[in-house]
Give the backbone structure.
Amino acid sequence: MNMDESFISDYKEFLASCKTERECCAAIVELAKKHGFVDIASVSSLKAGDKVYVSKFGKAVALFAIGSEGIESGMNILGAHIDSPRLDVKQNPLYEKDFLVYLNTHYYGGIKKYQWLTMPLALHGVVCKKDGSTVQVVIGESEDDPVFCISDILPHLAQKQMKESAADFIPGESLDLVFGSELPPQKGEEKDGKDKEKQEKDKAKQAILSLLKERYGIEEADFGSAELEVVPAGRARDLGLDRSLILAYGQDDRSCAYTSVRALVEAAPAGRTLCCLCVDKEEIGSVGATGMASHFFENAVAELVARLGAYSELSLRRCLNNSNMLSSDVNAAFDPLNGDLYDHDNASFLGGGIVFNKYTGSRGKYSASDASPEFIARLRAVLDDHKVRYQMAELGKVDQGGGGTIAYLAAKYGMYVLDAGVAVLSMHAPWEITAKEDIWQAYNAYAAFLSLT
């Protein structure tokens, strides 16, 4: 099956414009609406052929296409996450130090802190004001926008820093953005008296606050009710002279989320009800009201069951128990320059197609979701029928570490679950690498899975 270049272009545009979970959720809902999905709150009953979505706090969303079979027979579910490692702005972030203004941050998820130094960064998010209004913030993405960065020590003075381990030479509290500046006084032009010096101490900070007030209507206290995320500035780009790869921020896990959503909204009517679930907080343990460990998914399915007939707890439990799910999450691509970290025969390769990971977790399968071989066999059969390329792999060598997904949180309902996603090189770095072929194969694999009976 030849790759659709327009699909790849759409995917890159999604990555460029959706760098936070809020932006992803809004884009997913908008795409779903274009394909006939409506807010479940707007309908009191459902029947075969109906399409609805459920959103939570604008940061998690579930799409449902109602099938002709009874809901107790289960669903085919694609589950991905839409959060990515980043820096979050603290609630009291703005300060001035020696004529430079900084924005204080707290890193989110598993990052190598040193990778975030000296690169152009953008600010995305919302500021919620006491009057009930919300200010949308995106600074650093347009050509004429300013960008931000975290400074680093010059090599000439970095002897001590260079002796530290990579995990320690940049403390988390030093990941603060350069946000503005003020000219220092010239020698011989010192301030007249301590009162004037105190008055002008935060002159640069006050100038920044004036700009925030003028352009966005934001007061300093409004940071207390803001959700601002610091992400790499710039668009997704083709990588390599042959343009076979994609370099972009947030491909873990938006490469799987986008392809899953497209597969669901474009799917033909089916016997089983189809679901695409895009959740938040996976990078920090799937916690909170919008993470997979919450009751969001279960509550959404309960609303579905209630609108399909007489609600009962048993019907809900049967639906969940009888479902099939692909935990649509990425896997580590084999890195030829660090091949000793991988079991070559059980590694995933860029361009090899969608990756199936029977078990995640770490070392002795700790916190793993170990998929049923019966389910894997059924999935292999349907993918072969649809001529989809796939590879079976693990994340790395057994003792090197590991990682988790939302699979184990879905498996607790008794459903069949298997991890299935795109191979990513430089995973969790500000800029991650995928193969265009894998994006295309993931979309086709998810589409084939939705036809599973």
About this structure: The longest helix spans residues 251-265. The chain has a mean pLDDT of 94. The two ends are 23 Å apart (CA to CA). The first strand starts at residue 38 and ends at 39.
